[in-house]
Specification:
The complex is a heterodimer of chains A (552) and B (339).
Chain A: H1 2-28, H2 38-45, H3 51-54, E1 56-61, H4 78-86, E2 91-92, E3 102-103, E4 106-111, E5 117-122, H5 136-149, E6 160-167, E7 170-175, H6 182-186, H7 196-201, H8 210-213, H9 217-220, E8 230-236, E9 240-245, E10 258-263, H10 267-276, E11 281-282, H11 290-294, E12 299-314, H12 324-330, H13 333-342, H14 345-353, E13 357-358, H15 381-390, E14 397-404, H16 407-421, E15 425-432, H17 434-442, E16 448-453, H18 461-468, H19 473-477, H20 483-493, H21 499-515, E17 518-531
Chain B: H1 2-31, H2 37-40, H3 49-59, H4 65-77, H5 91-126, H6 131-145, H7 148-162, H8 186-192, H9 196-233, H10 236-243, H11 248-277, H12 280-285, H13 291-301, H14 304-332, H15 334-338
The chains are: A alpha+beta (552), B mainly alpha (339).
Amino acid sequence: MKATKYILFMLLVLSMSLASCQPKAADVVSPGEEQPMATEAAPAATQAVPPAEAAVLVMAANLDDVVTLDPGFAGETTNLMIHINTYDTLVDIRPEDLTTKVGRLAESWDISEDFMTYTFHLRPGVLFASGNPVTADDVVFSWQRLKNLAGAPAFNLDLVESVETVDDLTVKVTMNEANPSFLASAANPSLGIQDSLLVEEHGGTDAADASTTDTAKEWLDQNSAGSGPYVLTSWAPKSEIVLEANPNYWRDTPYFGKVIIKHVEDPTTKLQMLETGDADIIDALDYDLVDMAQADPNLVVDIGQTLDENYLAFTSNCATEIGPDTAAMVCDPNIRKAIVYALDYDGLIQSVLNGYGVRAPSIIPLGVLGVDPAMGWGRDLDKAREFLVAGGYPDGFDMELYYASNSTRDTIAAKIKSDLADINVNVTLVPMEQSVYLTEMRAQKLPTAFGGWTPDYLDPTMWTDYFGLGDRSIAFRMWYSNPDATAIARKIQTLADGPERAQDIHDLQVILIEDMPYTMLYQTQRVVGYRADLQGYAYHPVWFLDFSKLSN
Amino acid sequence: MGLASHLIRRLLLLIPMLIGITLLLFIVTHIVPSDPLSVILTEKSMENPASVEAAIQKWGLDKPLYEQYFVYLRNLMMGDMGTSFKTKNPVSHDLQTFLPATIELSIGSFIFAILIGLPLGIISALKAGKWPDHSTRVVSLLGASMPPFWSGLLVLYFFYYKLQIFPGPGRIDARLTAPHTITGLFLIDSLAAHDMQAFWSSLSHLLLPSMILGWFTLALVARITRSALLDVLQMDYIRTARSKGLKEKTIIVRHGLRNALIPLITVVGLAFAGLMSGAIMTETIFAWPGIGRYAVESAANLDYPSLMGTTLLIAVVYMFVNLLVDFMYAVIDPRIREA
């Protein structure tokens, strides 16, 4: 009997502790959280103080990929969003027009006719958040530090020979070979300009031995040293990133004085946070949750076209170290074509991506210069069988499909297997850990590979180099080397955007469709949800979102 | 003398065990055909020979494996657990970052499990075969059989999303930022900062994940308490105590429960160590930035410095909990002390 009392007492204590802290937690939380008045209540909270200081934007996002916030080292996706909001680049490519480069810290620039030198004229009177002025020295420091640290984003400056100051507000960049895509590359958030005095104060250096002597990473992981609209004030790994408005910002002060990005992995929970008003925006909505979000009148669902492609690649080496039997098959372009015509691309996009995807005919994604949707094809089993006959295997064959496993790719691989079964091609799926897959692929050992490609900046060379040049990335890994393709890809490197470049990009894709070392399976769309009272949302395929344009 | 020398022997034994663990881990992680460069560098920086060379030099990847192992051991002796390939931070720094969240959650779950499990176990032993016993069995069965990724989602759906009586995921409210880090334990840090807002928010955020994570342990505690107490209550000395006319409460607490504690402590000790290492699912669902997620990612990325660091840490926790359990046997049962 007494024990029963004891347990009742314990339950009472527990429920009281719940009761006592729960309402308090709700009090504490800004009124924006209380339901069902979420939308009306949020602005009310901001009335007492000027909006720019009090308004808080909460984003629920998956921050798993953030391993550092030092622009010298960060090479992942989320950091691009953080950096575009905390650092200013010289040049910008805005979401409204992805083909035009506009000035940001640079007021103007001159490019030599041979694309060997770029001279940037900086905007006068711009201050860093620290109050230091932005000068040409800061540009030199930032880019030399990036190059000499040799971290993940250093490849952006591979073609840069030197960065020099001409005067206080003029910087001259010299290339080691003709490089018309440098403006696009300079718009990458990793090339944002750092406050050299501040970074040096915290152990940073741009010396040649920076990779061993620079000690600013620890500080830059928790603070930013830029002139962008926001300042990084803290980062707790896998927990939150906090940004506050830069008081010295040279353009309009952002509406939201504080941006809190909370790490939430589970997609359903993210949507729940959005629906309850705990979050104002979420970084991505799972395709199967889109209907649910669309049914909520308080939410807006935006569908953004990414430039992220998922491809199926075949080796051109008939005896790879792994899966030589498969290599012996797929090194024949006829067999490759049999496979690509047997794939049901539309069905794949419908069933696996719930329709939130498109397909580019070849390596260049839709939305980039030189893409021609008319070059595409759909499923054609008769044609596939003809190519099987031409390849000498009218009755089909066995092959292995190698890929880095995750839930989406597992489903798509299963779909590929079932599609190919229709032409008697029996596929054995070989899912691998991402790190193992990349290792084997880089070592040129895989006969087939199903993977993804994301651009770092908006220039067609992001695709023509990596898929077209025999010594680069995907082409190299899959042993694809065609002198004609290489020659065109090299020429594309030396041309500025224009009709000639577009024609060359077109011609390169014709060759690739003829050789068929790859087929593009799908190009994803990014579905984002936000509260209906949020204004100014615009999706950018490289860095995602500019917080300073948002308001309530 | 007996107890002290026993303790010292046990502590000394930890050293070869730890070395054994590092060797085993080192071999296992290096058998896998994965190039550490693929973790250290990103897709595009692999194309840059300068980046590749810098990485090889920095991480000593050009040295033979046995040399890499001895360097690791030597550094470990000096308290340096190496640098994570992925985060590029010292592993000890990463562990410091993620451990407090796990400790807070483990302690919360542990308190929940004991506070509810122990009385439930006692009641079901005393009312064996009656409805309190049956309902306890149902609670235990649910706790033992529902995976946290399911029950976690379920409670979030009902208590956070539908009823809105519990806060959502995370360690603190979405519109609040973490208190200034002193210990990394939000409850303590927020008190130290006199930030009662943050304190109540952290406390309320701790409740749901603690319940979900602690439920399994609760089931364990309730069932073990019940069966151990049932055994003990049938002993002759209990009958003797009863015949002496002692109060029922004294009989159960002093004579019954104390003797039932031995199996309970063994289980509870291991369960606590399990809470520290087994919170991965709960951490994922509740967006809890703990050591479990870190360990899983280290394994998936074959980031062996951090993988070895976390495994060592968990091994040390298990070892010390075992030690503590042994020590507590001796405190509870004088016969063990003398033996």
